[in-house]
């Protein structure tokens, strides 16, 4: 019987079969995926095979995991040499940001975009709290929107509080599996509570069977979008506690490949291994000088490059 993983606590899982019936599940033996050293063998979003263990308790055993279309990981909190898979089989990610109360740094946005690029997951950037914007914030938003849309990202401005822009945003979620992320305080939970008024997602209780004392904040959870609003279906994956994905296994040499506007230019550099810093005849630096590449993005690149030491990689 095929099923999809909706929640993981590390030792127990909640899965749903293709008819929508929910089961408590555990794994049989060990799973190694593509040689990935991971602290969690199975992640939210995984497609798995299950066998009935106890029908009365609706408990099943996961016997096999299907090949993932993609997945997104972060460094394991317990061991920086291991990865923790946040979620798999994603259509897109939704990054919540704010320009006020609190202000999301462009560095954080860019790091998130690099992570998503490295896992081949399209990202929509959502600036919330538009009801608080004055002239300064409006101008900053227009500047950022222009900069990110020019390089291929979708950028939206909303106010969850005033319910502005939500219809247009929810249209983008239809029939997709969307990972939602962002710093605390940016309105991610408020948005989820608008989508799922019955669930009150701000509470982070762990049910009795699923491993008492677990840090629930390190695990993602998937929800089916309400069918009365989303007739085409769709799922959203909440990632509480993931404030920054961290750049997993990205070397200094590879970094510019995850800036789409730089990737388009790197073959024009004089040197094959150009780092776009001090080298002569660098196409990226030339493009910064002519405003083809935004100076703010180049500054982000340099800051992130400095934070990646060859040792940590």
Question: What would you note in describing this structure?
Answer:
This protein is of the alpha/beta class. It has three domains: 2-69, Beta Barrel (OB fold (Dihydrolipoamide Acetyltransferase, E2P)), CATH 2.40.50; 90-238, P-loop containing nucleotide triphosphate hydrolases (Rossmann fold); 255-307, Ribonucleotide Reductase Protein R1, domain 1 (Orthogonal Bundle). The chain has helices at residues 106-118, 135-150, 166-171, 188-195, 260-263, 283-289, 295-307, and strands at residues 2-8, 13-17, 22-27, 47-54, 59-65, 71-75, 83-88, 92-98, 123-128, 154-157, 177-181, 221-224, 235-238. A six-stranded mixed β-sheet has the order 10-9-8-11-13-12, covered by helices on one side. A five-stranded mixed beta barrel has the order 1-2-3-5-4. Strand 1 and strand 2 (13-17) form a beta hairpin. Helix 1 (106-118) crosses helix 7 (295-307). It is globular and about 70 Å long. The model is unreliable at 203-217 (pLDDT under 50).
Tally of separate domains:
3
Cα gyration radius (Å): 21 Å
Write the element-wise H/E pattern from the N-terminal end onward: EEEEEEEEHEHEHEHEEHHH
β-strand amount: 15-25%
For the residues shown, what is the average pLDDT?
86
What is the overall silhouette? globular
User: Structural class, judged by helices and strands?
Assistant: alpha/beta
Q: Describe the biggest sheet?
A: 6 strands, mixed
Order of the strands making up the biggest sheet:
10-9-8-11-13-12
How many beta strands in the DSSP annotation?
13
- Helix count equals 7
The CATH superfamily of the largest domain bears the name P-loop containing nucleotide triphosphate hydrolases
Reported by name, the CATH topology of the largest domain is Rossmann fold
Uncertain stretches of 5 or more adjacent residues: 203-217
CATH class of the largest domain: Alpha Beta
Helix content percent band: 10-25%
CATH architecture of the largest domain: 3-Layer(aba) Sandwich
Q: Cα distance, first to last residue?
A: 40 Å
């Amino acid at each position: 019987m095929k099923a999809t993983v909706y929640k993981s606590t590390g030792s127990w899982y909640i899965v749903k079969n293709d008819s929508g019936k929910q089961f408590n599940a555990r794994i049989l033996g060990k799973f190694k995926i593509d040689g990935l050293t991971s602290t969690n063998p199975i992640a939210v979003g995984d497609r798995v095979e299950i066998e009935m263990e106890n029908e009365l308790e609706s408990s099943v055993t996961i016997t096999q995991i299907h090949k993932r279309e993609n997945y997104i990981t972060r460094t394991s909190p317990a061991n920086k040499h291991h990865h923790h898979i946040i979620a798999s089989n994603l259509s897109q990610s939704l990054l919540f940001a704010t320009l006020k109360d609190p202000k999301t740094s462009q560095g954080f946005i860019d790091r998130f975009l690099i992570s998503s690029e490295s896992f081949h997951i399209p990202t929509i950037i959502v600036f919330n709290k538009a009801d608080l914007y004055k002239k300064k914030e409006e101008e900053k938003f227009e500047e950022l929107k222009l900069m990110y849309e020019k390089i291929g990202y979708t950028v939206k401005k909303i106010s969850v509080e005033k319910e502005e822009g939500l219809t247009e945003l929810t249209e983008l979620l239809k029939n997709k599996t969307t990972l939602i992320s962002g710093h605390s305080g940016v309105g991610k939970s408020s948005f989820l509570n608008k989508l799922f008024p019955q669930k009150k997602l701000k509470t982070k209780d762990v049910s009795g069977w699923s491993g008492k004392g677990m840090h629930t904040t390190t695990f993602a959870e998937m929800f089916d979008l309400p069918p009365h609003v989303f007739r085409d279906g769709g799922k959203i994956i909440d990632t509480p506690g993931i404030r920054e994905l961290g750049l997993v296994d990205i070397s200094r040499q590879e970094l510019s490949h995850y800036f789409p506007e730089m990737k388009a230019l790197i073959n024009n550099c004089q040197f094959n291994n150009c780092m776009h810093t001090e080298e002569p005849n660098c196409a990226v630096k030339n493009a910064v000088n002519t405003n083809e590449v935004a100076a703010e993005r180049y500054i982000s690149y340099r800051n992130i490059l400095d934070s990646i030491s060859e040792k940590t990689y």
